[in-house]
Design brief:
Oligomer: single chain
Distance between the termini: 40 Å
Radius of gyration: 31 Å
Order of helices and strands: EEHEEHHHHHHH
Structural class: alpha+beta
Low-confidence stretches: none
Mean pLDDT: 80
Strand content: 5-15%
Length: about 200
């Protein structure tokens, strides 16, 4: 974060994403005017001074979210209280596979500890189009992987076949001086392994 973060619930400063700040051509210490819908349904305008600029992976997040004090915002929107209306939980990448399991645990814990009825939604339920795009992307990556591996396998088999056909006399001579057929096989396999290793490294 460039600048400072929010100092409390009543902090009326604004924490802005780096990509959004660049798009608005503004910077730390300057003021921006926000237009919001108030509690009565009318439009509320207020000027905010930028007290911090955050930088996270992905410009979409920086353009989508900005932060200010909850109590200060409730006062601006003429809300009766500064009640929490939404809580977002972000998982670490290594735990993302257990999204549904963790969601069920949070739902059970919230139902047991809180009186209010909560509506729990995962990002896949909130944005099904994005979830479908992720699944299609993962599938396409596996398809391309199989295609590349198949092409690599055909290339390796072709190289080995050519190498063996050109060395028929040499291999026959090795067997004539006492090398076992298994030894010839292991020699060919060792050479193929070396060719594959060099190909992968280069």
């Amino acid at each position: 974060i460039e600048g400072r973060g929010l100092e409390g619930l009543e902090d009326g400063g604004l924490l802005l994403g780096a990509a959004l700040a660049e798009e608005l051509e503004t910077e730390l210490g300057k003021r921006v005017v926000l237009m919001m819908q108030g509690a009565t349904g009318g439009t509320v305008e207020r000027g905010y001074r930028i007290v911090g600029i955050y930088d996270v992976p992905g410009e979409a997040l920086e353009k989508a979210f900005l932060f200010t004090g909850r109590v200060a915002l409730a006062r601006t929107l003429a809300l009766r209280d500064a009640a929490v209306t939404e809580v977002s939980v972000r998982l670490e990448p290594e735990r993302a596979e257990a999204l549904d399991v963790i969601a069920m645990r949070i739902d059970a814990l919230a139902s047991a500890e809180l009186d209010a009825q909560l509506v729990l939604r995962t990002w896949r339920q909130l944005i099904p189009q994005a979830a479908a795009m992720v699944e299609i992307s993962d599938t396409s990556i596996w398809v391309w992987y199989l295609i590349l591996m198949s092409a690599l396998g055909f290339g390796l088999v072709n190289t080995l076949l050519t190498s063996v056909m050109e060395r028929v006399r040499e291999l026959g001579l090795l067997q004539a001086i006492g090398m076992r057929p298994s030894g010839v096989l292991w020699q060919v396999l060792l050479e193929s392994w070396l060719i594959l290793t060099v190909g992968l490294l280069t």
